[in-house]
């Protein structure tokens, strides 16, 4: 079932800045979608459009059949939204904050208490639950914000930089929770981040955005295929014949690299080198990371390959 | 509407569950006001006592013995210094100017003889007095000696000349009429209270709402908590109304505490200041009057709360919101003050001016002079303007430019 559908979504601010240009994509329920790009790429604008906080200049979107700009309150009833700037009340404790938002989200008092305690435990905030929020560290605040977004058991989760300011242990906890929810509860996650390595750990599909334009969308395999040079063959070898210089790039003493498309190409390359008298000590196939893919796509866009 | 209750409850809880907020919102301003007014009263009382206790330094020039005896008999205490020539007079004038002396009384030479030998057509002898009105002591000495004692002395000399002063008097006014004042005591006390209370009520309602109101909206935007509310299933109109109603209650309670404190303490303040207004402010209101006052205060709180919330929506920080609200505060201050200097009975058109009409209406209720059409016009207009602001607030809350910035 389609969870998010965006067609021709654009946003031009009053200042004239074109933050988003003709965004077209769809997500299926249960996907953990990483929406990736540098700061200012248009990620937050997209989240705001998809959650009804902004109205699109052109185009439209639907979240589980609901138009965000027409029925934002209805949408918020089944979506959990955690944005960078959405804070909670410093004068209330973590627990009191969750109880207040539970009430706001229409939960019965007992249900809100139970859900708050469950999430506080899951996010390892139980020890600090009666402390005023003002005493929380950045990481604890982020985790509590996540708890707030999950309080009403949403079907969709929008997360904007959820691990910003978190220590590695907290990142691991948040990742774990996101993956578990997607797997066990079928929640669709739309996750915006500029941390590509982090996204690679938690997301199943990705959208890469730069300057308001969606560069590519797909799973890692599909994205690697898009860049053609999906793999890097790394060799530790001696006596490389001159005829191979056009294919192999020397990166260090006795170390060479070569871009290839598939792992299946490796045996033929190794056999050819060996036949020509090369002494091979080590052969490794390195898969392209999201970062590699992103930069490759950016480079290609700069070269004028608009259709990826 | 769903959500109003939650926001209303949250805003009230924020104030009433925090001892510091209760203290700073409701108690501290009242304590400061009572302390300040007590201080002013005591200082005024101290000043009056000091003026009464002060022994004025009076230069006398060619004063007849009969005048100094008259002053002694009048029990006026003063420090007499005698001067005899123009040089000394000049020096004395310099002392008056510098505040070292308080009064100069200069009689003509041979004053008593000139009075005794007076024939019809003669020039009247002139007594000259010199004082410095910018010096309190000098002003009091002038009033006691130049105005009162010299007038008494003149009457005494006149009696000596004509035998019976009454022959020079055609009639008196209220010399033994103790019942000259005919008034409705309640109305009179209401009018005395109506001089200041309406102004303070309208002003304090706004002042009580101002800092909290700006924080409720601009403060929440600044701290990022508004963003969390905007991604909740609450309608934005519910968020806005919840905040306005909470602000109404807070400003109403704050104003009520102020007014009760003022009514309770005002006789002390005004009495201490030496005025007679204190004894006049003894309010006894009928249930109808109380009902009208409550209705006016509720609608005015609604208008103020709506205005403050509306202005605050445009601000990104409390500081910015405070600067936006300040002109409205000054306007209310001026409109409220206008009623303190009104002498004519206000016409129906006066009750069409927002805020000013509420001050007039409160004044009218206290002095039992308001008519029902005037009351209803004030009430209706205030509700309508408040509702217009409410509509604009909801529009502003729905504006992505204002709320998603």
From TrEMBL, chain A:
<keyword id="KW-0813">Transport</keyword>
<comment type="similarity">
    <text>Belongs to the ABC transporter superfamily.</text>
</comment>
<dbReference type="InterPro" id="IPR050763">
    <property type="entry name" value="ABC_transporter_ATP-binding"/>
</dbReference>
<dbReference type="GO" id="GO:0005524">
    <property type="term" value="F:ATP binding"/>
</dbReference>
<keyword id="KW-0547">Nucleotide-binding</keyword>
<feature type="domain" description="ABC transporter">
    <location>
        <begin position="4"/>
        <end position="236"/>
    </location>
</feature>
<protein>
    <submittedName>
        <fullName>ABC transporter ATP-binding protein</fullName>
    </submittedName>
</protein>
<dbReference type="InterPro" id="IPR003593">
    <property type="entry name" value="AAA+_ATPase"/>
</dbReference>
<dbReference type="Pfam" id="PF00005">
    <property type="entry name" value="ABC_tran"/>
</dbReference>
<dbReference type="InterPro" id="IPR027417">
    <property type="entry name" value="P-loop_NTPase"/>
</dbReference>
<dbReference type="InterPro" id="IPR003439">
    <property type="entry name" value="ABC_transporter-like_ATP-bd"/>
</dbReference>
<keyword id="KW-0067">ATP-binding</keyword>
TrEMBL record, chain B:
<keyword id="KW-0472">Membrane</keyword>
<feature type="transmembrane region" description="Helical">
    <location>
        <begin position="21"/>
        <end position="44"/>
    </location>
</feature>
<feature type="transmembrane region" description="Helical">
    <location>
        <begin position="244"/>
        <end position="270"/>
    </location>
</feature>
<keyword id="KW-0812">Transmembrane</keyword>
<feature type="transmembrane region" description="Helical">
    <location>
        <begin position="324"/>
        <end position="342"/>
    </location>
</feature>
<keyword id="KW-1133">Transmembrane helix</keyword>
<feature type="transmembrane region" description="Helical">
    <location>
        <begin position="290"/>
        <end position="315"/>
    </location>
</feature>
<dbReference type="InterPro" id="IPR013525">
    <property type="entry name" value="ABC2_TM"/>
</dbReference>
<feature type="transmembrane region" description="Helical">
    <location>
        <begin position="375"/>
        <end position="394"/>
    </location>
</feature>
<protein>
    <submittedName>
        <fullName>ABC transporter permease</fullName>
    </submittedName>
</protein>
<dbReference type="Pfam" id="PF12698">
    <property type="entry name" value="ABC2_membrane_3"/>
</dbReference>
<feature type="domain" description="ABC-2 type transporter transmembrane">
    <location>
        <begin position="19"/>
        <end position="392"/>
    </location>
</feature>
<feature type="transmembrane region" description="Helical">
    <location>
        <begin position="196"/>
        <end position="218"/>
    </location>
</feature>
């Amino acid at each position: 079932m389609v969870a998010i559908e965006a067609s021709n979504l654009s946003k031009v601010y009053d200042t004239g800045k074109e933050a988003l240009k003709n965004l077209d994509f769809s997500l299926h329920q249960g996907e953990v979608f990483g929406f990736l790009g540098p700061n200012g790429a248009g990620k937050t604008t997209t989240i705001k459009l998809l959650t009804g906080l902004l109205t699109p200049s052109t185009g439209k979107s639907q979240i589980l059949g609901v138009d965000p700009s027409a029925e934002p309150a209805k949408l918020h009833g089944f979506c959990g939204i955690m944005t960078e700037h959405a804070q909670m009340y410093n004068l209330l404790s973590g627990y009191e904050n969750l109880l207040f938002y539970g009430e706001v989200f229409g939960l019965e008092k007992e249900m809100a208490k139970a859900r708050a305690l469950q999430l506080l435990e899951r996010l390892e905030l139980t020890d600090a639950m009666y402390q005023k929020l003002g005493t929380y560290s950045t990481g604890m605040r982020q985790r509590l914000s996540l708890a707030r977004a999950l309080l009403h058991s949403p079907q969709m989760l929008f997360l904007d930089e959820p691990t910003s300011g978190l220590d590695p242990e907290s990142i691991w906890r948040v990742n774990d929770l996101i993956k578990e929810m997607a797997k066990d509860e079928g929640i669709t996650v739309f996750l915006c981040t500029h941390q590509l390595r982090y996204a690679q750990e938690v997301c199943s599909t990705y959208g890469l955005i730069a300057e308001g334009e969606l560069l590519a969308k797909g799973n890692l395999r599909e994205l690697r295929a898009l860049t053609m040079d999906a793999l890097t063959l790394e060799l530790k070898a001696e006596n490389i014949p001159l005829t191979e210089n056009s294919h192999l790039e020397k990166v260090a003493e006795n170390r060479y690299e070569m871009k290839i498309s598939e792992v299946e190409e490796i045996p033929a390359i190794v056999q050819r080198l060996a036949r020509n008298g090369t002494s091979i000590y080590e052969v490794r196939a390195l898969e392209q990371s999201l970062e590699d893919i992103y930069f490759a796509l950016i480079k290609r866009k700069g070269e004028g390959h608009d259709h990826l | 509407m769903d959500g109003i209750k939650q926001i209303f409850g949250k805003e009230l809880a924020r104030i009433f569950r925090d001892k510091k907020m209760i203290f700073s919102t409701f108690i501290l301003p009242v304590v400061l006001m009572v302390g300040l007014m007590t201080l002013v009263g005591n200082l005024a009382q101290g000043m009056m006592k000091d003026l009464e206790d002060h022994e004025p330094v009076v230069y006398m020039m060619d004063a007849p013995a009969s005048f100094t005896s008259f002053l002694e008999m009048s029990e006026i205490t003063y420090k007499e210094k005698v001067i005899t020539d123009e040089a000394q007079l000049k020096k004395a004038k310099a002392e008056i100017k510098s505040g070292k002396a308080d009064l100069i009384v200069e009689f003509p030479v041979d004053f008593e003889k000139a009075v005794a030998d007076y024939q019809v057509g003669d020039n009247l002898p002139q007594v000259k007095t010199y004082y410095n009105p910018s010096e309190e002591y000098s002003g009091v000495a002038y009033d006691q000696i130049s105005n009162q004692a010299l007038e008494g002395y003149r009457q005494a000399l006149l009696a000596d000349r004509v035998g019976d002063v009454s022959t020079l008097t055609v009639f008196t006014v209220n010399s033994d009429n103790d019942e000259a004042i005919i008034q409705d005591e309640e109305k009179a006390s209401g009018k005395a209270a109506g001089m200041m209370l309406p102004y303070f009520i309208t002003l304090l309602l706004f002042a009580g709402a101002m800092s909290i109101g700006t924080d409720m909206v601009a403060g929440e935007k600044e701290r990022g908590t508004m963003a969390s509310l905007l991604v909740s299933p609450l309608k934005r109109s519910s968020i806005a109304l919840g905040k306005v109603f909470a602000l109404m209650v807070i400003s109403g309670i704050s104003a009520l505490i102020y007014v009760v404190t003022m009514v309770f303490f005002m006789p002390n303040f005004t009495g201490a200041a030496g005025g007679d207004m204190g004894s006049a402010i003894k309010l006894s209101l009928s249930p109808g009057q109380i009902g009208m006052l409550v209705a006016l205060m509720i609608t005015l709180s609604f208008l103020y709360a709506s205005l403050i919330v509306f202005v605050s929506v445009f601000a990104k920080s409390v500081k910015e919101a405070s600067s936006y609200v300040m002109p409205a505060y000054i306007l209310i201050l001026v409109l409220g003050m206008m009623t303190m200097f009104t002498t004519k009975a206000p016409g129906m058109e006066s009750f069409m001016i927002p805020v000013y009409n509420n001050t007039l209406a409160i004044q009218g209720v206290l002095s039992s002079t308001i008519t029902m059409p005037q009351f209803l016009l004030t009430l209706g207009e205030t509700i309508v303007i408040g509702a217009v602001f409410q509509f604009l607030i909801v529009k502003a809350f729905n504006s992505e430019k204002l709320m998603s910035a």
